[in-house]
Structure prediction request, 208 residues.
Amino acid sequence: MPINTIIFDLGGVLIDWNPKYVFDEHYFDSLEKRDFFLHHICTNDWNEKQDEGRSIVDATQELIRQFPEWEEPIRDYYGRWTDMLKSPIYETVEIFRQLKERDKYKIYALTNWQANLFDIALVRYNFLHWFDGRVVSGEEKTRKPFVEFYQRLLDRYSIDPADALFIDDNLRNIRAAEDMGIESIHFQSPEQLNSQLQQLGVLFQHRS
Prediction:
């Protein structure tokens, strides 16, 4: 069946977010210390618990009790969170704009994002208001790659998986969507995304 629905992930696809913008080579004594902190203290798994609905205050205080010697960077993880949130990925936003202008697709956001922090993104990035709907993990108390999170989007907006295309930069999330029968693109760059959308006939090459 032809694609009539496009589902975008946000961080890493439409928005440039990375903790290393705070914890750069100037923050710690060494990059090895920085990498230890991000891989063993404030880890992706830990951050995803907040994406799933846990309070960032409770999560921060709990981690400080476990690792008091790391208190300052632990506090800075959310205290300086807006510094991790950089510019839109402009080329992908342009692809989004072109898809929107075709007026052929319903376009939704499915994102792992802590609910209160997502409000900051809504203020900062106007294109987040272009979606026909969005499902945010912190508001739903579940997240990718769990089936119930994807299913919530499908049910809420009456989406047939066979008609949908999902775009995400995390291969784990892509595989979960594909297991549900949703065609997916593993995002690696705007150029790669543009090429694959053209191959699928979802986007056409602009001619000058």
Q: What stands out?
A: Residues 23-79 form one domain. The two ends are 31 Å apart (CA to CA). The chain is about 50% helix and 15% strand. The chain has two domains: 5-16+86-199, 23-79.
